[in-house]
């Protein structure tokens, strides 16, 4: 593996190669058209390029379309994962197989406008930025529930981990040294958007409007989004664990106050039946304990997965530039 130090002083020129990394899941109906649109823009702007497209265990005809595309186009590398590992793992595979001087990550549905690619390349080549990231002007036509959930998630992440991902996206162009730094992060459970922010480097933001999907519908269910959010928060901060301690202190203080009040009422002969109070206290304390155990369990699960050391993904097939590898 190339070290970061060995590529810090690489020359940025019109001959530099752009690797376009695209994760694909159930995108068979439009993947060829999407690649064609992107490729046309790259050719018109005389950008040297390669595609690394990762089929994340699709059950439709995505792999057949990618196989046909890779055999016909020497600029395309098609990877097929052995099963559906998730978008984050597919991104890992694409980044590790990409060989360009700069690497662009984008979606297959053209919601990340390819018209911005020349501007992103120019910012890298002529202005010297190491990371050029697309920032959404708006979240497009999004379910109100998802929009509210995203707002809460980004607020929690900012306040607990000091990582501002408000309106951020996976649409990023990164210098080779940034990708090499990213690849040094050893965790098995990844959150690309947060990790790409964590590594730092000189950055520029380019705003864009989220386009309408060219076909199909989003693969992100409420459960998948919730799991991604929990993974992101627990990957970058231990604040939830500290909240358990704070909750315990609050309950302890409340117990002292209630205990003193109960003892006073007993000694003064004014003690009343406290069945309702006891039931409410039991429910509150019991809920607090279960929530605390659940939070600890999430962190233990992450430790469990990291200790096992299983690979982030497995590749079942790879076709590069017309031939198998």
Find the structural class using helix and strand composition: alpha/beta
Q: Strand percentage, roughly?
A: 15-25%
Number of strands: 9
Q: Which second-level CATH architecture of the largest domain applies?
A: Alpha-Beta Complex
- CATH homologous superfamily of the largest domain? Spore Coat Polysaccharide Biosynthesis Protein SpsA, Chain A
Taking all Cα atoms into account, the compactness measure Rg is: 25 Å
Order of helices and strands, N to C? EHEHEHEHEHEHHEHHHEE
Q: Tell me the domain tally.
A: 2
Helix content: 40-55%
What's this, in brief?
It contains ten helices and nine strands.
Task: Report what the structure shows.
With 325 residues, the chain is an alpha/beta fold. It has two domains: 17-236 and 315-324, Alpha-Beta Complex (Spore Coat Polysaccharide Biosynthesis Protein SpsA, Chain A); 239-308. The chain contains ten helices and nine strands. It has helices at residues 31-44, 62-72, 87-97, 117-125, 144-161, 176-183, 192-198, 222-236, 239-267, 275-308, and strands at 18-24, 49-55, 76-81, 102-105, 131-136, 168-175, 203-208, 315-320, 323-324. Strands 7-5-6-4-1-2-3-8-9 form a nine-stranded mixed beta sheet, sandwiched between helices. Helix 1 (31-44) links the parallel strand 1 and strand 2 (49-55). Helix 5 runs parallel beside helix 8 and helix 9 (239-267) runs antiparallel to helix 10 (275-308). The longest helix has 34 residues, at 275-308. It starts with 17 loop residues before the first strand and ends with a strand.
């Amino acid at each position: 593996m190339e070290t970061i130090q060995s590529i810090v002083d690489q020359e940025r020129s019109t001959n530099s190669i752009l690797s376009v990394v695209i994760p694909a899941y159930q995108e068979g109906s439009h993947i060829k058209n999407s690649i064609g649109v992107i490729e046309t823009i790259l050719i018109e702007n005389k950008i040297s390029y390669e595609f690394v497209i990762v089929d994340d265990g699709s059950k439709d005809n995505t792999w057949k379309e990618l196989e046909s595309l890779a055999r016909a186009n020497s600029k395309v590398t098609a990877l097929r994962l052995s099963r559906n590992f998730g978008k984050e793992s597919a991104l890992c595979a694409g980044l590790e197989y990409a060989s360009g001087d700069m690497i662009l990550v984008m979606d297959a549905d053209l919601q990340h406008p390819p018209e911005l690619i020349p501007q992103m390349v120019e910012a890298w080549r002529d202005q010297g930025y190491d990371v050029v990231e697309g920032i959404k002007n708006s979240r497009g036509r999004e379910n109100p529930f998802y929009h509210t959930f995203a707002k809460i998630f980004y607020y929690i992440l900012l306040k607990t981990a000091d990582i501002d991902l408000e309106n951020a996206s996976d649409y990023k162009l990164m210098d080779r040294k940034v990708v090499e730094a990213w690849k040094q992060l050893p965790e098995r459970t990844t959150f690309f958007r947060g990790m790409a922010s964590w590594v730092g480097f000189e950055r520029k933001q380019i705003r864009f409007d989220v386009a309408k999907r060219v076909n199909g519908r989003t693969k992100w269910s409420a459960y998948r989004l919730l799991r991604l959010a929990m993974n992101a928060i627990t990957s970058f901060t231990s604040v939830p664990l500290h909240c358990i301690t704070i909750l315990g202190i609050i309950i302890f203080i409340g117990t002292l106050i209630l205990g003193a009040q109960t003892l006073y009422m007993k000694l003064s002969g004014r003690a009343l039946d406290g069945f309702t109070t006891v039931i409410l206290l039991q429910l509150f304390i019991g809920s607090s304990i279960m929530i605390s155990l659940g939070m600890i369990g999430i962190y233990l699960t992450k430790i469990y997965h990291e200790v096992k050391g299983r690979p982030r993904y497995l590749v079942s097939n790879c076709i590069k530039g017309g031939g198998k590898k």
